Amino acid sequence: MTRFTIASFNVKNMIGADKEYYQFQSYTPEEYAWKEDWTANQLFSMDADIVGFQEIFEESALRAVIKEADRIGAASNDAVIPSKSKSYHRKAIFRKLGYTPYADAALFVAPNVNDTFEPGRRRPGVAILSRFGFVGTPEIIQDLPEPLEIPFSELTGEDGGHYRISRLSRPILKARIPVNDKTNITVFNCHLKSKLGEFPRPEGADFAPEVDLTNYDPVGRAMGALRAALRRMAEAWVMRRAIVEEINAGYPVMVMGDFNDGEHAVSSEIISGEVPFRNYSWMLRHNAKHGNDRYKRGENDAIQKAVNDVRLISSETLFVRKSLRDMVYTTAFGGVYESIDQIYLSRHFHPENDQAIGEMEYFSVLNDHLTDGSHAEAPYNKLASDHGQIMAHIRLKDD
Known about the structure:
This protein has 399 residues and is α+β, with helices and mostly antiparallel strands. The chain contains six helices and 14 strands. Strand 7 (184-191), helix 3 (218-248) and strand 8 form a beta-alpha-beta unit. Helix 1 (29-46) crosses helix 2 and helix 3 (218-248) runs parallel beside helix 4.
């Protein structure tokens, strides 16, 4: 029986000291030392077999964190793993007492092709750390071989123009991971476009008019949010296309990362796939000739299967169903607590699928460090991540 854990960790601006990542933003050596220690302790606490990282500006900084997590883990093992030299009555016995170091794990970092490497104008990438290694070389999806053209039409039928992207804001990392001798799982790690508005800068101008808050333009800023949402949903569709390809090729799929949207947002539902209608036998056919021309029972069964076969389910949703908790959150801002970090599982892990190869046994979230910066008694923490870390505990079934 194979058990493993998979986690998503937005580390928030992982870069070394005295390096300006965004304009006028950098860490002093003391701040970086604190951040490295905090991040390593979180990684040690999770002790996950597969970790997807977001907001990686510098691979060396991430490797330093992993090395520090291993140092902390080794010290913890010396202290807690029972031996003849220790007093047993002081030890708590758990299923998994020790920490497994990442010394033999594989790390793949996907840099952002939009990164200028100029101080103050950096752009972060993503990474996957795997104790199981990888099958082949992970794939980076960012520069699209063919631009994505999204056509629109007016409600009256005329051409409504199109939206076009040729490059994603941040890379999507796709890796096949051999969790045991018989099972390879395709893992996607993403960091979709944020809700920060996109404001084109007029030619010759120093900045876009909408960013001048002394001349606040609510309509222009709303248009910026619309542009960001369009980009985020387009990026979600690009990942959805890759997910369906993997499922159709026969691979179990797990998708994790910072979606910058909740589970029921349109962008998230694009990734997970549509929810099937309860009974398509009630629905008018696509080519109906009269009012009672509906799908047949056999067609309903075929449609249900086609929709469900490529649908993903949130591990958080599975956890809430199994527990007495009604809320999990990974961000807190302005009094709003929500989950924008997700781990999605393909039908291969769905408890209602009698052909499932495994199941999620538990779901963990580390969010005690999150503070709502809008509250005077809970100041914003610059150095810790502004995201909670999530982890799904998976058990593969016996053959």
